[in-house]
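DNA-binding response regulator (Marinomonas hwangdonensis), 223 aa
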Amino acid sequence: MRILLIEDDVRVASFIERGLTAEGHQIHVLNDGQYALNTIKSCELDVIILDRMLPNIDGLTLCKEIRSAGIKVRILMLSALSDVDERIKGLQTGADDYLGKPFHFDELLARLDALYRRDHVESSHRALQVGDLSLCLDTMQVTRADQTIELTAKELSILELLMNTPKRIFSRERILANVWGVHQDPLTNIVDVYMRRLRKKIDDPFCTPLIKTKRGMGYYIKG
């Protein structure tokens, strides 16, 4: 994912940059919004992470300028001003999502994934494909080698997450944040249980396993 981070807090910017780089994203960092619009116009971006409180130009004004310029890039606004009224202001200016500070890094990743999936779905004709495994996002029907596979709602959510970015490793914490909306596993091994169920349905009846485990890191799918 190509990400522009506009954040004037050096400590926060460094934390986000290191974390997103470790996740395999391409990230460019600006600490002032004054000249950001020129950068945004000249770069191909998937998501902008925009701090609300910036020097010279605040995040709300910059967000309005981005939308007034007709730029359709996804915008995730960050702010310590996180009550309902402030979140509404951010969304009304054109932000696609609003995350209050302080935040869990896994939640930031989950929200970025969700924003990326919106565009990915629009450009993929509502279908995901990995090897001979297919997921129709309109009907949520799963087929492999032309055989229909019945999955539960949670199994479908996990599979969609994995298939959106094949070969990308998702930690248990990331899967929990995306699928269950929590950051700690209340049942200690719920993700592992569901991954075993998925493998039993997706991989066991077929010759080539698609769902992989990276020891100590998490799960990914590869055709």
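The radius of gyration is 19 Å. The chain has two domains: 2-119, 126-221. ok done for today
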